[in-house]
Design goal:
The chain is an alpha/beta fold. It has a domain of 161 residues: 3-Layer(aba) Sandwich (Rossmann fold). The chain is built from 11 helices and 8 strands. Strand 4, helix 4 and strand 5 form a beta-alpha-beta unit. The longest helix is centred in the C-terminal third of the chain and has 16 residues.
Length: 233
C-alpha cells in the first residue's frame, strides 16, 4: 500500500520503519523539507517528500506532529485528495508544549479539533503507545502478552482499515468507538502510555471518566514538562 507520513519525529519515524519492513511504499515529510529526510528515507527505502506530496501519496496518510504544528499546515493540504483516503491522527495535546488551544480546553476532543483544522475526517490511533514499543514489541496474532492499541473513528470503513493496520504491525486492535469517544485515550487517561493487552485496554477505556478530562490532561502535562523543556544552553 502507498502510505504518506507527515512528521518525522519519534512516532512518525517509528511507524515509518515498521511499515517499510512490511513492504509498504512510503512518502515521508517534515516541516524542514525533503532534503533533511533523504538519508533516513534511503535507509528504509522510502521517498523524502514535501508535506503536500505526502498528503497525496497513498490510501493512508499518517499525521504524526505536535498539536501546535497542525495549525502550521497549509489550509488546503488535503484539497483534491481522494475522499476515501484514510487520515490517521497520532497527536496528543500538551499545553506546556503546544500552548493553550481554547476549543480543546473547553471540551472538544483533540482529534475532532484536528479533523476540523484539516478539513477531513480522521482516525485517532497510535497516540497511546510509546514509540519504542512500536519498534520493538510487535508480535504475531495470538502471542502471549501482545500489546493492544485503541482506534477511534466515525467512519466504519476508515476504522476497519486502521484496525487492520494495527494488527499488521503486531498489536491487538481495539475498537474505541467514534471520534467523540477518543477522549478516553487522550493524555493522562487510564489507558494512556500503558502496556496493556486487549482485555486490560478495554477495561482502561471504560474506566475513564469524562468529568476528569482536565485533571487527566494536567497530570500528563505536569509529567511531560521536563521532557519538553529545552536543555540549558
Amino acid at each position: 500500500m502507498n502510505i504518506g507520513i507527515i512528521g518525522s519525529g519519534m512516532v512518525g519515524s517509528a511507524l515509518a520503519r515498521r511499515l517499510a519492513r512490511l513492504g509498504h511504499r512510503l512518502s515521508i515529510s517534515n516541516s524542514r523539507g525533503p532534503d533533511t529526510l533523504r538519508q533516513f528515507a534511503g535507509e528504509i527505502d522510502a521517498t523524502a517528500a514535501t508535506t503536500s506530496d505526502a498528503a497525496r501519496s497513498g490510501g493512508i496518510v499518517i499525521v504524526a506532529i505536535p498539536e501546535r504544528a497542525v495549525m502550521d499546515l497549509p489550509k488546503d493540504l488535503f484539497a483534491g485528495v481522494a475522499a476515501d483516503t484514510v487520515v490517521i491522527d497520532t497527536g496528543n495535546y500538551y499545553p506546556s508544549r503546544d500552548g493553550q488551544i481554547a476549543a480543546i480546553d473547553a471540551g472538544q476532543t483533540e482529534s475532532r479539533w484536528v479533523s476540523e483544522r484539516l478539513g477531513r475526517p480522521v482516525v485517532k490511533a497510535f497516540n497511546t503507545i510509546y514509540f519504542k514499543n512500536v519498534l520493538e514489541k510487535g508480535a504475531p496474532p495470538g502471542a502471549a502478552g501482545r500489546l493492544a492499541v485503541p482506534v477511534a473513528a466515525d467512519g466504519r470503513g476508515e476504522r476497519e482499515t486502521v484496525l487492520q493496520l494495527v494488527d499488521d504491525l503486531g498489536f491487538d486492535p481495539v475498537d474505541a468507538g467514534g471520534l467523540d469517544d477518543s477522549w478516553r485515550q487522550q493524555p493522562g487517561t487510564p489507558c494512556y502510555g500503558k502496556e496493556l493487552e486487549a482485555p486490560g485496554l478495554k477495561e482502561a477505556l471504560a474506566a475513564a471518566e469524562r468529568n476528569r478530562i482536565a485533571e487527566y490532561r494536567k497530570a500528563a502535562d505536569d509529567a511531560a514538562r521536563a521532557f519538553f523543556r529545552p536543555p540549558p544552553r
